[in-house]
């Protein structure tokens, strides 16, 4: 499982002392080759953390030998000194592993606007390097948790012999343009950086970019895919892309399932759209509607709030042709009252909303979650 | 005060039996002339309630003799039958008052997707007509409350002799493009419909359009301004516009102050923007950031969440030139750590956030509120 499911990778997770509570907080994933190909996507937030700015440069070379990830601090909005901290971390990893710092991706997550305790980070790199193991994937996944209640891993294996595995963290600030999440995927398939990039972008577009826990976009998001080529097989491009998509979808679903304070996972499917962009715009608008998210929390099939959210978009539709189903019951037909809302059973964690725009044949699925008092409690006390 | 502060208006508020709890739920405001000029702005939500669709047609004539408002039901997403209900309500008011239905504005607020109990509405119109009084403004303001904890009124009087008064309701679903709010303004100044329209649009643009309680846009918003001309004075256009703006600003501030579950009112001022549109876009992005709203609730000066919200906009700025003050303390300078966050005193209800984009000289103020467990409780139980 995790990032060491594929051959050609070692990993570790250690308690470096970055988190005050002594929990694991530093992970290292090393590509032992023979190939060092990599691709990545980053947050589209214009305020980018130092590790994002650094890693964007690294990934341009298409070659990554290692990624070092820390929880306990985002190293975002920390200015030139924060960037120096990221640089020093990459140099330290390069030094310990005998690689070039220009091939070391750095990722951080935690509170924005606070410098990292660099003594802890640098000694933690030594500790993590000592602990590297071909079975270290789980420990790495545990060390990148922040408010996550569980660590998240996934794997897909091809009959052709190659494997795609990965780990993710993230529980809040999940919104399109990615999320407060770090994801590392590894594969032992033999692929070059452009091939990885194509598969990764196709996968994230319909997975991580289509979850929305709270409408908030992070400064630190990163999804990294590294290929070791260790299994010696060059995969069929379509099969590989589907495997990457499946692992991303699995991890994305785990992120929503562990969203801060959530009691419901909401699957929003927009159908009958004129374009896929319309479907995504409508799905996101529904996903971000606080009033609807509260109603779902209260197990109230309040379809009026779905319609009011749709009405704020620029998608093609006529208000009197909108249909909405909640858990399969078409409570809104032709923009008005449909089947009896009492028929909707909302006892279970997963809630399905289907919005039919009656304007075409395109569709999209967005995953979201409800808004709860627990979310408020967790996020009003985070940094204090 | 309220809609009867100006001469030439009578009003009433009664319990018509639309609300199950027996509270006042139907208000009538009548222009007794000599003029019947009027202007209005409506929600920009594309899913519009029946009374909005009706009243948009009425206002095109520039002449309004009365407005009937009900709480206890929004009459939104109720299809052709819901529109017939609105029409029947206007006909009833016209019949009772001896006016034309084409001069009767109808406004509704409450739950979406439920038909109004028309027996109660129509008998309520009789009751309200009987209760009309030149001192009925307060009662009208009380009858339009939904989740409002207080009724909202405001007034401005010119030394030239004319008065602008008004009432408002709204506590949730407040967002630009207006809000779940109904506002009726009256004046005894002698002005025609185009003159009223100019003043009203200028006023709402910088007041009701710049409050945001929860990012949710209503299907029912309406701001109506009626002029009776009863004081016989044609006002100076600029002075009148300022008076309308002042009354709108006062009412808008009251709406935010009574927002559902809120414990903090947040004044977000964006300065140093290249354009006013940039300032508004950034202000709204900050206003809608759930994580920041939770932090403010927890009295946590979490400026990182301000920066992450700014980073999602398309406004002109450089990340390393952003400055943020909370209650006057510049906790973020040049996109990084500024003054000590411990210096920020957040004990009081009003919280001031200043975001300096360092990109020009334009500015805008957006009012918002915090996100609380009480908001979640209130909105997860609203219709059940």
Question: Can you describe this structure?
Answer:
The structure is a homodimer of 384-residue chains. Chain A is built from ten helices and 16 strands. Chain A has 384 residues and is of the alpha+beta class. The first copy, chain A, has two domains: 2-257, 4-Layer Sandwich (L-amino peptidase D-ALA esterase/amidase); 265-380, Roll (Ubiquitin-like (UB roll)), CATH 3.10.20.340. In chain A, strand 4 (66-70), helix 2 (79-97) and strand 5 (104-108) form a beta-alpha-beta unit. Chain A is globular, with a radius of gyration of 21 Å. The model of chain A is unreliable at 174-179 (pLDDT under 50). The interface between A and B is large, with 68 and 68 residues.
Oligomer class = homodimer
CATH topology of the largest domain in chain A: L-amino peptidase D-ALA esterase/amidase
User: What's the rounded overall pLDDT mean of chain A?
Assistant: 88
* Number of helices in the DSSP assignment of chain A: 10
Q: Largest interface, per-chain counts? A: A-B, 68 and 68 residues
Write the CATH homologous superfamily of the largest domain in chain A: L-amino peptidase D-ALA esterase/amidase
Strand segment tally of chain A: 16
Provide the structure class of chain A. alpha+beta
Give the strand order, joined by hyphens, for the main sheet of chain A: 9-16-11-15-12-13-14
Main sheet properties of chain A: 7 strands, mixed
Q: Which strand-content bin applies to the residues of chain A?
A: 15-25%
How widely separated are the two ends of chain A? 36 Å
Order of helices and strands of chain A: EEEHEHEHHEEEHEEHEHHHEEEEEH
The radius of gyration over CA of chain A amounts to: 21 Å
- What are the low-pLDDT stretches of chain A, counting only 5+ consecutive residues below 50? 174-179
CATH level-1 class of the largest domain in chain A: Alpha Beta
What is the CATH architecture annotation of the largest domain in chain A? 4-Layer Sandwich
Shape category of chain A:
globular
Subcellular location (chains A, B): Cytoplasm
Keywords (chains A, B): Acyltransferase, Amino-acid biosynthesis, Arginine biosynthesis, Autocatalytic cleavage, Cytoplasm, Multifunctional enzyme, Transferase
EC number (chains A, B): 2.3.1.35, 2.3.1.1
Site (Involved in the stabilization of negative charge on the oxyanion by the formation of the oxyanion hole) (chains A, B): 109-110
């Amino acid at each position: 499982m995790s990032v060491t499911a594929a051959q050609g990778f070692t990993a570790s997770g250690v308690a470096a002392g970055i988190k005050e509570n002594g929990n694991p907080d530093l992970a290292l994933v090393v590509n032992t080759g023979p190939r060092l190909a990599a691709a990545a996507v980053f947050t589209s937030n214009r305020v980018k953390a130092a590790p994002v700015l650094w890693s964007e440069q690294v990934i341009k070379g298409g070659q990554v030998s290692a990624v070092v990830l820390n929880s306990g601090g985002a190293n975002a909005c920390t200015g030139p000194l924060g960037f120096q901290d990221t640089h020093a971390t990459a140099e330290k990893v390069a030094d310990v592993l005998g690689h070039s710092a220009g091939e070391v991706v750095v990722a951080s997550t935690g509170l924005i606007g606070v410098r990292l305790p660099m003594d802890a980070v640098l000694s933690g790199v030594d500790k993590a390097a000592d602990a590297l193991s071909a079975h270290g994937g789980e420990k790495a996944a545990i060390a990148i948790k922040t408010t996550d209640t569980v660590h998240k891993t996934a794997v897909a294996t091809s009959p052709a012999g190659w494997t795609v595995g990965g780990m993710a963290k993230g529980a809040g600030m999940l919104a399109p343009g990615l999320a407060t999440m770090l994801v590392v995927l590894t594969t032992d398939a033999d692929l070059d950086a452009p091939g990885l990039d194509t598969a990764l972008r196709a996968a994230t577009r319909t997975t991580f970019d289509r979850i929305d826990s709270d409408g908030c976009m992070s400064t630190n998001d990163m999804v990294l895919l590294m290929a070791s080529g260790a299994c010696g097989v060059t995969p069929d491009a379509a099969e590989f892309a589907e495997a990457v998509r499946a692992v991303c979808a699995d991890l994305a679903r785990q992120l929503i399932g562990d969203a801060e304070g959530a009691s419901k996972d909401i699957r929003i499917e927009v159908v009958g759209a004129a374009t896929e962009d319309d479907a995504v715009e409508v799905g996101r608008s529904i996903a971000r509607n606080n009033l609807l998210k509260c109603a779902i929390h209260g197990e109230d099939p309040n379809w009026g709030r779905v319609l009011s959210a749709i009405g704020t978009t620029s998608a093609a539709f006529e208000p009197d042709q909108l249909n909405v189903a909640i858990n399969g019951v078409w409570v809104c037909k032709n923009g008005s009252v449909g089947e009896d809302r009492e028929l909707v059973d909302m006892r279970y964690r997963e809630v399905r909303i289907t919005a039919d725009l009656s304007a075409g044949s395109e569709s999209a699925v967005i995953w979201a979650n409800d808004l709860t008092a627990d979310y408020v409690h967790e996020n009003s006390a985070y940094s204090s």
